[in-house]
Predict the 3D structure of the following.
Amino acid sequence: EIGKIHNGPKVFQLYVWKDRELVKEVIAKAREGGFNALALTVDFTWYGNRERDIRNEFTIPPKYTPKQVIEAIKKPAWTYDFLSHDAYTYACINTDVPADSLAAFVNSQIRPEFDWKDAEWLLGEWNGPAAVKGVVRPDDAVKAVETGFSTMWISNHGARQLETSPATIDVLPSIREAVGPDVEIILDGGVQRGTDIAKALALGADSVGVGKPYLYGLAAGGTEGVIKALEILKVELDRAMGLLGTGTVDDLKKRGPGLIKRRPGSARDYPDRYAYERGYGGGVI
């Protein structure tokens, strides 16, 4: 469906799965749908501890607890919309099975032992531009390039996987240095303002991925809300570049390191007085 309504570049995100026949099937559907590139997400080979989900009693498949029933009653419009529409499905796997049931199957497919040999097999099956999503170390980035990935996608999965994982903006310069100037780099994680985009470009990224901004726009205003969110980011980026005296993205990337200053850590960076000793927090860009 996406391939029919969008003629521009499309990236298909794939997780590390055990069943190679399923992977082949999904890749074939992506290719038939006109997707130009593949993004292999490698930082989800184990389950993160989603404490917010635990507090909210969110599970897949869902368990309808008294708390959730009460919340549903308090939001009648959302509940009516949910109950009156067809169940969500995973179009790339099986459109006949509800998403909440398929999710358990997808979770069972996660493969912790996935290694570089498996990545080589996947690239051979795809035979096209491919990004590895979840890179946070320079040596892994170099290995990914050697394996055949054309793009490094620096991501820590929204910091929802490994506790105290490094901020992506902190590891970006070292990864750019390791892979050189010609390898494409995408950065995500905390990009919510145009100034965040400017910082990423200045420190070596070619582009950024955003999550919350477009989701906020979608929730608030549907398609028009998404367009508005992207327009806000563009205006903020243009303003930041103008005030920095960089007329083009190439100029920003060329002069970027000299424009970025890191302030030392302050009390507001840490949740308590002993946080620094525990390795929590740090300077803010």
Residues 280-285 have pLDDT under 50 and may be disordered.
